[in-house]
Specification:
Elements lengths: L12 H17 L26 E7 L9 E7 L4 E6 L4 E6 L4 E6 L23 E4 L2 E5 L4 E6 L8 E6 L9 E3 L5 E6 L6 E6 L14 E7 L15 E4 L4 E6 L24 E5 L7 E2 L9 E4 L5 E6 L4 E6 L10 E5 L5 E4 L8 E4 L4 E6 L25 E6 L4 E7 L8 E3 L4 E6 L14 H6 L6 E7 L1 H7 L10
Parallel strand pairs: 13-17
Antiparallel strand pairs: 1-29, 2-3, 3-4, 4-5, 6-7, 7-8, 8-9, 10-11, 11-12, 12-13, 14-15, 15-16, 16-18, 19-20, 20-21, 21-22, 23-24, 24-25, 25-26, 27-28, 28-29
Length: 483
């Protein structure tokens, strides 16, 4: 995720703070929202999801027009355009929010939307949009019908969708990453069996779309000894590291990590295999990767006590991986691993992450931890799904990227797995599903209602980290001026 932010550190902290002050004001003034009918609803940012004693403050909630948020996936921020993008399956499009004013702008459609199972739950493998990323005027979204959508953000909504490129699968194009120049894009078909990734030539800074079926460079797979077919194993979030010139792709479960573990071949038994990290060299012609080769710095690195979904590149060539017990019940921490040395550190008291994000504006990682097992201090979520224990709330995790220490954990509603931050404005965006009384599979904790202001549609919560204030009180959180 560093590809968007290579030049951010030249911005001085003083000018940065002044811009932030102007940006946050509308959010505070807009604390009382209006419904479509014009009736006032309770103000947002109340309850466990808006604590007063955290450094990361809830400032407002943005309502998304249309159907209630039953299902969404990955989100993204382009700080140069001051835009946040959310893969909104409920409304079959990508929602765009202005990160300066904290206001909804538009939804760009053309996606499959929510596909339901017979019992009314969401069938993730064929719903869309899914993965989302952007560079300049170009927005890319994965769809549930195995296509990559190419969107021109400078075009009117009706003509913004410029291409829909099949990847050859039958299930969704999921998470993706771009090189720094925006010219190469890697997207994972995580629900195929076996899964594969597709490397595309992307639009870069072009003013016209150059992408179509011929922009596919190659498909990339993992050796069957590592990802055996027939067991639903997958590839998840990629990230691009400009220093090593490699894509890093999280793999939730791999065979024989450790030797003899269960990756699904023992029916009915718990998963005991940990995950891996696939290292891809886009300059190589290789199409199938095996075990890690230190000579070429490619292949699958076996991870310690981590079954990751998310991946993001932070400072010093470190990657934060969003480990989750949803992949392996014993993986109850978060992992930071160095891209060059492969040395690692486990971070305790936060787990269960899907999307993770490094924000260079405040040098912090943010985790969308819907399967958090470690709890939120002082908060009880007895009805939280996929968790255990009286304090096991879904959470927004906040981690100091310089020290790799957990800063704080903030309660979120059910399914809160998506997070993205605006590095210019230090705003963090966390979408919330509608209540379970409104949509199947909705929030059962009650936390989302407080964050959203009792909206029955769900919302996108906006958090803010005042870097200057915390610098005055905690030098560990300082954003350096000399990068």
């Amino acid at each position: 995720m560093t590809s968007l932010y290579a030049s951010l550190f030249s911005v001085s902290r003083r000018l940065h703070a002044a811009r932030l002050g102007r940006a946050v004001a509308p959010a505070v003034l807009g604390a009382v929202a209006m419904t479509a009918s014009g009736a006032a609803i309770a103000g947002p940012c109340t309850g466990p999801g808006a604590p007063t004693d955290t450094q990361t403050k809830c400032v407002t909630a943005i309502q998304i027009p249309g159907k209630p948020l039953q299902s969404f996936d990955i989100s993204w921020v382009n700080p140069d355009r001051a835009e946040y993008y959310l893969g909104d399956r409920s409304n079959a499009g990508i929602d765009i929010i202005d990160t300066r004013t904290n206001t909804f702008k538009r939804t760009i459609g053309g996606f499959v939307g929510v596909v339901l199972n017979p019992n009314g739950t969401v069938k993730n493998s064929v719903s869309g949009p899914d993965g989302v990323t952007s560079h300049g005027r170009w927005l890319y979204g994965g769809d549930g019908n195995s296509t990559l959508k190419v969107i021109d953000l400078d075009a009117p909504t009706a003509s913004a969708l410029k291409a829909s490129i099949p990847t050859g699968g039958t299930t969704r194009v999921d998470e993706m990453a771009l090189t720094t120049d925006g010219k190469l894009l890697l997207a994972a078909n995580n629900a195929e069996d076996p899964p594969f990734a597709t490397l595309f030539r992307a639009n870069g800074d072009s003013n016209v779309n150059t992408m179509g079926p011929s922009s596919i460079i190659r498909k990339i797979a993992v050796d069957a000894s590592i990802l055996p077919a027939g067991f639903g194993l997958s590839l998840e979030q990629p990230a691009w590291d400009p220093k090593t010139q490699r894509f890093y792709v999280s793999i939730p479960i791999i065979a024989n990590n450790p030797t003899g573990c269960n990756y699904g071949q023992v029916t009915g038994a718990p998963i005991t295999c940990h995950g891996g990290l696939l290292v891809i060299d886009p300059a190589s012609s290789k199409t199938t990767y095996g075990a890690f080769d230190p000579t070429t710095n490619t292949g699958v690195v076996a991870l310690n006590e981590c079954g990751p979904n998310g991946a993001t590149v932070g400072p010093h060539d470190n990657l934060l991986l969003g480990c989750t017990p949803g992949n392996n019940p014993s993986d109850t921490s978060t992992l930071v691993i160095n891209a060059r040395t492969r040395h690692f550190a486990n971070i305790g008291d936060i787990t269960g992450s899907d999307e993770v994000w490094f924000n260079p504006g405040d040098r912090r990682y943010y985790t969308g931890s819907s399967r958090n097992l470690s709890g939120v201090p002082g908060v009880s979520c007895p009805n939280a799904p996929q968790t255990s224990g009286p304090n096991a709330c879904p959470a927004l995790g906040v981690i100091n990227a310089e020290t790799n220490l957990l800063v704080e954990v903030i309660a979120q509603g059910s399914g809160s797995h998506s997070v993205a931050a605006d590095a210019y404005r230090n705003k963090i965006f966390v979408p919330q599903v509608a209540p379970a009384s409104v949509v199947k599979g909705g929030d059962t904790t009650g936390v989302s209602a407080g964050i959203c202001g009792n909206s029955t549609n769900g919302c996108v919560a906006v958090y803010f980290h005042d870097v200057d204030h915390d610098h005055d009180h905690d030098h560990d959180d300082e954003v350096a001026d000399n990068h």
